[in-house]
Structures are given as structure tokens and as C-alpha cells.
User: Which sequence fits this backbone?
């Protein structure tokens, strides 16, 4: 049984390692084979970019060699897929090679697309790539005061980032002693300040306490860099001196180019994680069109469920469980406090008041991530 | 020709049904209808509030078998 995993991010890596351990004997006997195709030889801890953007993490701490994270039985190639030929159970890669499979998992992820909103890329900072996070840190440390506007596109990776970036910037300017010269203007696309109502309620109290102003039902339409104004689809506008963007995201171009899903999101069954209309193609993490968080945590729990199922298909011929929509998100609430939200398709989250213990657990998780990617946590 | 798109946001707590609609409406054509399926009762209020502010058109809103169906038309 040939299992081909396309994508070496959080979802693909956890899946590959979890499967390799479950199929140890089958791999040894040559009854199963796991191959991963990735666009990069390095694996990035993406949540670390938030800390890079406020000068709290060095860029080299974001990376590990992908081969150092993978079980040795996994065949790994840095050779991104260019063509999916699903009817023939094969893909073609940038190097021109063709890989066949019995079961295919697509976990290619997503990318921030500030260029989809006129003026946004040229006039804002964000923490979604290493280069952007480094540039954000440069502008943040040189900022001497004025209005910091946080503007949020839809959909975006990591639903907690708009709040987290606001809280950590608030505390950064406070620690630098210039908070009295900084005004925060937080904007959000829907009628409250976070998509999760209980998180929005909690954050509203924090914003009121910290003097952070906010405008809801604000969807970016265009940015006028000359006048330093963001215009909304709803007809309002927000002035800024520093514009911090959570840009709209798309799936990877190869997905759309191969006609697998509009905007790079593949239609996916919410429980089996099968690509709609395909029996041997599965989708993981940001690449799905599921109405749940685009976050490493989602990919993590999906990967665990899928690993169990794919291993069971190899051993028993049938899957054994459904993915229940589980997500767990840390929420940094400043420089030394954090909380979390845990929920699934049927149970809404109930975040508690932030505290130092959760913050320090998040700090520890920044290191534990590597154990998590190896499928150990 | 105008089309009808269905957005299955059942079980969505985060990013939420209205966020799903906002993400998808950009891809739709003017005149298209979008039907959001939601198990979150707040959607029946959230979506019309946004539709009114941004200037699209509410077409229908009803509950069936525990699922809210909110239908809007893209006008601009």
C-alpha cells in the first residue's frame, strides 16, 4: 500500500510520523510505503513568527531540518508537486518525476495574500512570513507613537492572531515606556471583536480595561497609503500611523491550478477528511474548505484521526473513527498572561481568565512543538 | 447568469458562519445568492446585521431541523 503525503507542514509531518509508528511492521515487511513530497528542506514553526515580529524570538529558532523530524522509514523528497492526476492515482513534481499512490493526502497549507486588497501589501506590516515578521519588528521598534490600526482580512490563518498581536504590541509599547503616545484601533470583520463569542466577550473586557478602541463590521476594501487611511467595504474608514494587517489567505496556487478547489481550498468531508468525490484522496489542515480554524492545532488533531484511519485501512481494510472538529488554541493575552480555547463541531469553547501559568505553558510549547511535529505529543 | 451557492457552516464556532460568508462572497458574482447553513443561532442575527451595513440584500431566513438557513443576494 503506497501512501503519498504532499506537504511537509504541521499536518503532513504529524501524519507521516504517526503512520510510520502505527505501520512499523508493514513498512519493514514492504507491505506499506510512506512518501512525503515537500517544497522545503526546512520545517518552520509558524506561530513563532508572532514572537519574531516583537523581537522576542530569533529567526533561526523558527526552523528545524525536516529530515530530523521524520521517522527514518519515511521516504522524503524536496520536490513540490506541480500536477495532480487523480484519475490515474499519480502526481508529477517540479523535477519531472511521477509518483503513484494507493492513498494520497494533500496538506499543502495556505499563504497570506495582502496583494488581494489594493494598497495593503505596500502600506502594512504582518507576521506571516519570516521576511514580513522581521520587517514588522523593524517598524515596531522604530515606532515613536501614533495610531496602531489592526485590520483583518477573511479568511485568515490562526483566528487568535488579531487579538494576540494587539495584546503583545500593547505590552511591548508599555514596556518601552511610550504607551501614552500610542492609540490602538482594532477592527474586525463581524459584529463582535472575535469570531468565537465567548472569546469576544472576554477580549472586550480586556480592551476596555486597556483602553483599546475597536470597530466591528469592518472589512478592508482598500488602503490609501498617501493619506494613511484604510477604507472598509461597509463604507467607514480608519486612520493609521502603523497598519498591522492580518491579510486574507488563500490555499496554495497548485491546488487552484489543478482545479482541485476554488481559492486553493479543497472540498472535504468534515468527518472522514476525504476529498469530496474521491475515495482514496484525503485533505489535511489549512488546505480543506472546512468551516473550522485554519491553524496548526486543527491540522494536528485532523492528522491524528487520519493516521489512525489510514493505518486501520492498511491493517483492516476499513477506517475506525471520525474527526470531531477538535481544535485547541492558545491565546497570548499580553507579555506574561495567556488563556486558551478548546472546542469541536458540537461543543463551543469556554475560555477562562488568562494567567501566567498558561503563558508559561505556551512558552514551553514553543519548544515542545518539535516533539509534537514528530508525533510524540 | 446568477447562481445559488450553499455554504455549509454547520458546527462552525471559529471562524464562524458570518466569516465563512464574507470569505465566500468575494468569489461570487453580482446577483448570485448565497445560502448559509448554520447551527449557531447567533447567525440569524449576525448575518442580516452585516448584510444591512454593507448593502447586500436579505432573501430568506428560516430554521429547519435545528439548522438555520440564511439566504442573501450579492448586490455590488
Assistant:
Amino acid at each position: 500500500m503506497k501512501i503519498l503525503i504532499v506537504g511537509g507542514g504541521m499536518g503532513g509531518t504529524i501524519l507521516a510520523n504517526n503512520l510510520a509508528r502505527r505501520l512499523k511492521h508493514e513498512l519493514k515487511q514492504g507491505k506499506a510505503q510512506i512518501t512525503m513530497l515537500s517544497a522545503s528542506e526546512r520545517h518552520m514553526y509558524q506561530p513563532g513568527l508572532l514572537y519574531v515580529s516583537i523581537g522576542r524570538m530569533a529567526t533561526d529558532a523558527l526552523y528545524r531540518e525536516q529530515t530530523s523530524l521524520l521517522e527514518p522509514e519515511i521516504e522524503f523528497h524536496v520536490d513540490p508537486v506541480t500536477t495532480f492526476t487523480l484519475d490515474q492515482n499519480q502526481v508529477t513534481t517540479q523535477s519531472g518525476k511521477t509518483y503513484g499512490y494507493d492513498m494520497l493526502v494533500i496538506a499543502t497549507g495556505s499563504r497570506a495574500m495582502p496583494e488581494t486588497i489594493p494598497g495593503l501589501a505596500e502600506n502594512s506590516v504582518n507576521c506571516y512570513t519570516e521576511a514580513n515578521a522581521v520587517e514588522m519588528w523593524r517598524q515596531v521598534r522604530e515606532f515613536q507613537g501614533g495610531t496602531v490600526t489592526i485590520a483583518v482580512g477573511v479568511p485568515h490563518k490562526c483566528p487568535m492572531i488579531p487579538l494576540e498581536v494587539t495584546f503583545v504590541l500593547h505590552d511591548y509599547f508599555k514596556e518601552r515606556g511610550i504607551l501614552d503616545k500610542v492609540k490602538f484601533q482594532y477592527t474586525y470583520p463581524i459584529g463582535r471583536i472575535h469570531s468565537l463569542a465567548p472569546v469576544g466577550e472576554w477580549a472586550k473586557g480586556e480592551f476596555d480595561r486597556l483602553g483599546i478602541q475597536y470597530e466591528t463590521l469592518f472589512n478592508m476594501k482598500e488602503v490609501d497609503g498617501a493619506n494613511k487611511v484604510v477604507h472598509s467595504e461597509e463604507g467607514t474608514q480608519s486612520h493609521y500611523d502603523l497598519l498591522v494587517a492580518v491579510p486574507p489567505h488563500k490555499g496554495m496556487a497548485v491546488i487552484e491550478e489543478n482545479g482541485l478547489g476554488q481559492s486553493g481550498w479543497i472540498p472535504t468531508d468534515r468527518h472522514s477528511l476525504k476529498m469530496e468525490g474521491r475515495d482514496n484522496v484525503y485533505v489535511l489542515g489549512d488546505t480543506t474548505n472546512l468551516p473550522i480554524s485554519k491553524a496548526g492545532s486543527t491540522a494536528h488533531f485532523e492528522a491524528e484521526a487520519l493516521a489512525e484511519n489510514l493505518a486501520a485501512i492498511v491493517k483492516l481494510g476499513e477506517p475506525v473513527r471520525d474527526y470531531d472538529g477538535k481544535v485547541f488554541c492558545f491565546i497570548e493575552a499580553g507579555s506574561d498572561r495567556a488563556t486558551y480555547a478548546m472546542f469541536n463541531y458540537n461543543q463551543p469553547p469556554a475560555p477562562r481568565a488568562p494567567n501566567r501559568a498558561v503563558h508559561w505553558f505556551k512558552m514551553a510549547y514553543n519548544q515542545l512543538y518539535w516533539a509534537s511535529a514528530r508525533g510524540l505529543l | 447568469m446568477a447562481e445559488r451557492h450553499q455554504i455549509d457552516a454547520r458546527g462552525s464556532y471559529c471562524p464562524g458562519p458570518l466569516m465563512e460568508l464574507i470569505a465566500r462572497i468575494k468569489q461570487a458574482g453580482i446577483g448570485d445568492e448565497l445560502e448559509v447553513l448554520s447551527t449557531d443561532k447567533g447567525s440569524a442575527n449576525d448575518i442580516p446585521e452585516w448584510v444591512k451595513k454593507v448593502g447586500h440584500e436579505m432573501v430568506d431566513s428560516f430554521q429547519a431541523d435545528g439548522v438555520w438557513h440564511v439566504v442573501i443576494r450579492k448586490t455590488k
User: Anything to note?
Assistant: Residues 34 and 51 of chain B are 12 Å apart (CA to CA). Chain B has one domain: 4-74. The radius of gyration of chain B is 11 Å. The helical segments of chain B are 17-25, 43-54.
